[in-house]
UniProtKB/TrEMBL annotation:
Protein's name in the database: STAS domain-containing protein
Its membrane topology: Multi-pass membrane protein
Organism placement in taxonomy: Eukaryota, Metazoa, Ecdysozoa, Nematoda, Chromadorea
Domain STAS: 109-243
Keywords (A to Z) from UniProt: Membrane, Transmembrane, Transmembrane helix
Amino acid sequence: MHYSIRPQASNTRLNPFQCILASIITVALKSMFMKCGELKRIYAVSKIDFMIWIVSFACTAFIDVMEGLAISILFALFTVICRSQWPKWQFFFESTQEEQDGDKQSSNPDVCVFRFDGPLLFTNVERFKKGLKRTMDSWMNTWDNGSTGKKVENSDKESSPKRPDTLFKEDSLHSLIIDCSAMAYCDYMAATAFNEVAKDCKDKGGILYIAEALRSALEASGFFKKIEKENVFPTLKDALAIANRNGSALRLLREAKKEQQANQQNSHAPSIAGTSSASLPPTPSSPIVRLSPSMNKK
């Protein structure tokens, strides 16, 4: 009995302190409970962050602090892996037509910009190549259908009907710009994919420009053996400026060549159509005047 009474007495003496401990825990968790008011804003910004918050709160409140923290970290890492495997991509090619608001776009419709929002790794390199192929097909189809420029984001559906690989039209210089500003890092498979893209673009008759790329990784993979370093730019603005300038210069040269050929054809054509030389009146022959050396000196 002596040993059974002592624990009861000690528990009785600790009861007030347990209430104090519960109050301390409640005050410490007050800030976490107050965060519930931000759930609406978090859900509007990112649904993945919303799920991370819900999982972290539920595990910490109903399981344990340490176990809930571990589960929250693992769940957050899982979402990062998923987002790195399925990043968004978008492309934009320009048009010379007027939009509804009256603002005119760039005068060079031969430039297409492709952007990949995420690091380029072996887990998503196939998605990168697939998105770039759809971009090329959709861009090339615009010259057959005469459609206007457009912007497509994260197009997992077929944006254009399947067609065999064809060359770009020869009357203009087509430039493809890959915006790598969102690529924090890339691995060996990514560098190999860039080499395949450069070869494919060259076979189709276009020029490839790279903006804000990791030059060290590209140089180590031998990328600059297939494309010149002058085609890699530090910013997207510089790449657009060079692509527009080269395209405009080539169009001017080809227009001048066509005009010269037209002038040559017109010079060989008869001045009066349907009139034979026999029906024309004879032209009087004018005497040939030859100047003597003395007259030339004067």
